[in-house]
Design brief:
The chain contains six helices and two strands, in the order ααααααββ. By secondary structure, it is mostly helical. Strands 1-2 form a two-stranded antiparallel ribbon.
């Protein structure tokens, strides 16, 4: 909305949008009050602080401070899995599930997979969490 407002020259107050939509018939999300509070705290009706879904320490909370319940996150992952297995495209749902998993994790597990691929194709090596040792693995067997 911020980009559309800037492009079209609209004077959109995102704080007010969050307040109006909070109990609307289309959007009824526990994220909206947090987003509104973040906009107020950052003294900006334009750009929210990422703190609206991060804990006070700056680290992501395990359950995004209750915005998405564990049951809701599991249901989202199951929905995405069923759609993908059924051959249906669901890019926004899949990205949402991935984004939530990244925020809800104390470690960035997806980065471990990225580092493994870098090591596999470029012999970059990686650091083992358990020992701190940098290693390279022969991932593929030569034919």
């Amino acid at each position: 909305m911020r980009v559309a407002a800037a492009t079209e020259g609209w004077a959109v107050n995102l704080i007010e949008c969050c307040r109006i939509w909070r109990d609307g018939c289309i959007i009824r999300s526990p994220l909206l009050p947090r987003l509104q509070a973040s906009l107020v705290a950052s003294d900006s009706a334009v750009t929210p602080s990422p703190a609206c879904w991060l804990g006070s320490s700056g680290a992501a909370d395990n359950d995004m401070q209750g915005v998405v319940s564990a049951e809701g996150a599991l249901a989202l992952r199951r929905t995405v899995a069923a759609m993908v297995l059924g051959g249906l495209a669901c890019p926004v749902l899949a990205a949402t599930a991935s984004y939530h998993a990244a925020l809800a994790s104390s470690r960035l597990e997806h980065m471990a997979a990225t580092q493994a691929l870098r090591d596999c194709f470029g012999a970059h090596g990686f650091t083992r969490q358990s020992t701190g040792e940098t290693v390279h693995v022969a991932w593929m067997v030569a034919e």
